[in-house]
Every structure is written in C-alpha cells, then in structure tokens.
Design a protein that fits this description.
The chain is α/β, with parallel strands linked by helices and 322 residues long. It has a single domain, classed as Inosine-uridine Nucleoside N-ribohydrolase, Chain A. Helices cover 34% and strands 17% of the residues. It has a nine-stranded mixed beta sheet, with helices on both faces. α4 (137-145) links the parallel β4 and β5. α1 (20-30) crosses α12 (303-321) and α3 packs across α4. It is globular, with a radius of gyration of 18 Å.
Amino acid sequence: MDTSLSPVPIPVVIDCDPGVDDAMAILLALGSPEIELRAITTVCGNVPLAGCTANALRILELAGRTDIPVHAGADAPLIGAPIYGRFHGPTGLGGLSLPAPSTTAQPEHAVEKLASELRRAVEAGKGLTICALGPMTNLALLLKLHPDLKSGIDRVVSMGGAFRSPGNRSLTSEFNVLADPHAARIVYEAGIACVALPLDVTHQAMTTPERCALFAGGAPGSPLAAAHALLERWARHDPARYGGDGGPMHDPLVTAFLVAPSLFHTAPAGIFVETDSPLCYGQTVADWYGRSGTALIATKVDADGFYRLLAERIARLERMTA
C-alpha cells in the first residue's frame, strides 16, 4: 500500500450529510496532510439539514479544527420531498454522543461558499476537488447558478450509485442518488471530471471485529475513541446479503481515494441517472464500453489496506489534538 505523503495538499471542500460514515470520512481528511480541507458544506440527507450541520460542527470540534468553516446548504431535493437515512439513528451519529458544538455555521449559503472557493481556484490556476458524500443538490445548484465557474472544478469525487450491485434503498437505487436523482443527473451530465465510488465497491469495505480493533485504545473523548465507537455499532445484521454481521463503510472511501488511490481499481465510463421510471427511479447506469462520459467508477478496493489507512490517519489526528 502506497500511503506516501503528497508534498502539495489537494484543496478540497467536503459536501456532506453527516451521518456516521460522513464523520469517518471527515476525520480521515483531517488526519491526512495530502488534503487541505477548506470548508464543509452540508445538505439534507441522512438527517434533516439542521442535524447534518450540527454534526459537522461537532466533528470539527472533536478534531480540534473549529477553524474550518461550515456552511449549510439545500434543505430539500430539487424535486419532491426529502427522504432520510435508515441506519444513522435520530441524531445521525448512531449511538455516539458528542457535546453540542461551541461554534455555529457561517451565514453564507453552501452554494455561494462553493462558488467563492471555485473563484479562488480559477484565480490560483489550481482546481478544487469537491468530495460529495451525500445527495448532490448543492452541486447541481452550483452548476446551474454559476456555470462560468465549472472550470474551477478539478474533479468531483462522490460516494453514490449502484451499477452491478443492487440498490440499498430501493431495488435498483443507492440512497445518495435516490435522495435527489435530478441533481445527480445534472452533475454527471455537466462534462466535468467525476469519480464515483458506488455500492459495488463500498460493499467490499465491510466492518469486522478485526478491522474495528485497529481503532481501539483511543483516549476518552478523542477522535480515535469516537471512530471506534462508530465502527463497533455500524452493523447491518444481514449476513445473507453482506457475508457477515458488519456494515459497509461508504463515505470514507472518497477521502481514501484522494489519499491513496493505489488502493482502488477504476474503470472509465459514462454515468446516467434514471429520473422518470417509478420502478427504477434513481438508478445509475454505466456505459462501460462506449466511453461516453468523463467519469471513473471504482470497481475494487483493498479493504484491509483501506481500514489500516483509516486507522493510521485517525490515530495521527489524535496525536495532533493531544
């Protein structure tokens, strides 16, 4: 596994709906010097927007990084009513209890914060990477309201979709895309570079007792202790589907892809999103052969290497906050 540190950090905004696995993805980013996390933007997803925003603030406080701004965004999909996650509990952080944040979100809307970061990227001549860990509503609004800033996006790296795997919220559809398929369609049809980490690969990264043990030993109230608590409770109790009692750790694969892309196999493809069929609403379809798009789809991950990386970097974050 190549986890050598990059000399030039990647400028990143994380757009998310925390969420247990979003929390893990943020902690991984904060513990990785390859990533310069400029802001967190939130979107309605696993829980309503206010809960997602509060959770982002809590995670940053846990990590000692309240200097990173949080901007709340869309509180509903482009069309229709919100749907929420099923596995994150009423607060969005499972059984983990974190103190109320001492900071508040910035007044600027998430879409405008993304736009200002893209202007900065254009001026600097260094594209911005957007990590999309939830529904893509904020990104779709950004592309529609500020089409002139598209050139500032280096790539969108997203957790979402299901191609050769069945859906996890409907027969055909993965939750993040199903929660706002019209937004996902706008992003994937925008002609920008995209990397998708779908259920096909996240279901390879299941928690196990051995993998959870990598996170043991953190001081109470520390990032490592919080990560251990989140992982231990992230079970699906569905061995018939997953091959064990654990759960798939979706969103941290996005930040892991930035830090250690050698852990992944990808294939170029075009990505299309179904927005009309009631049966297949939110389904993602890949053109694996025509090369009709600008996306890479992750197909395989070194799961043990991923969990070692995750544990190493959150332990590093723990040392930074001690």
